[in-house]
Amino acid sequence: MAEPNYMLNIVGVFGFPVAENPTGVMQNAAFQVLGLNWLYLNFEVEAEHLGNAVLGMRAMNNFRGVNLTIPHKVAVLQYLDEIAPSAQVIGAVNTVRREGDRLIGENTDGKGFMRALGDDADIDAAGTHAVVLGAGGAARAIAVELALAGARHITIVNRSRERGETLVRLLAEKTPAQAAFVPWQGTYRVPEGTDLLINATSIGLFPNVEDAPDIDYDSITPGMIVCDVIPNPPNTPFLRRAAERGAITLDGLGMLVYQGAIAFKMWTGQEPSVEVMRRALAAEFGG
User: Where do the Shikimate dehydrogenase substrate binding N-terminal domain residues begin and end (predicted)?
Assistant: First the structure.
C-alpha cells in the first residue's frame, strides 16, 4: 500500500488585481484529468510586495511555479536566478519555473501564439511577412517570437509612435528580422503580400464585444492568416470579417490555452490535454 501523501504541489498567478484571471480554470481541469496532486491558485500581490512573494515561493519546496500578470512581468526579473533567452529579448517574464532551488523566468505569451500557428494552422513562420496591430506586451512577445522563428519582415502598426518605434528598434537590434513602424492614423490598409495579420490590441475584449480594429477589411485577401489575441469572446468581429474574405483565422482562446499548456509542462514535466483545457475555458466564458 502506498504511503499517504497529503502535500499539494502549488502553482498560481501573482498579480494585482487577479480576481478575474481565469487561468486556474484550465490548469486545474488538466491536473484533475491526469490525476496530479497539484492546485493552481490566484494570489493578489501588490507591486511593493512582489519581492516578499517571490521569497515566500522560494521558502516553500512544494510551490512549483507561478505566472506573472500586471503589474509584475518586468519587475520580477530582478528576483530570478535565470532568464530564458527569448524572455531576455522581450524584457518581460510571465512564467516562473522551479529547478531545485533556482527560479527561472520564461515568457509563454509569444510561444502560445507560435504553437497555435503551427499546430492549428500548420504554418511555418520562416520567411513570412507579418503585420502586428499594437505594440504593447502581447505584441512585443509575438513579434519577438516571430522574428526568432525566421519571419522575414514584421510591420508594427500602432497609434503611439514612441512605443511602436521602440519595438521596431528592439527587433532590429536583437533579432535577424527586418522591421518597420507604421503610425496607425485613420483606417489602416493591410499591404499586399502580407502573410500574417495579428490583432495584438485589446480591441474587442469583453465587454466591448462589438468593437473591431480600424482597418480596411477589403485589404484582407483569401488565404491570409488572421489572428486575434482576444480570448473572450473567441469569435471576434475582427475574425468574422476576415473569414468572410477568405482568410484562415486563429482565435485568442487557442493562444491562451497553448500558453497554459506550455507552462503546465514546464512545471510538471507532463503534457496536458489542450482539448480539456480549451473546453474548461470555453465553458467558463459561456462558449
Answer: 13-96
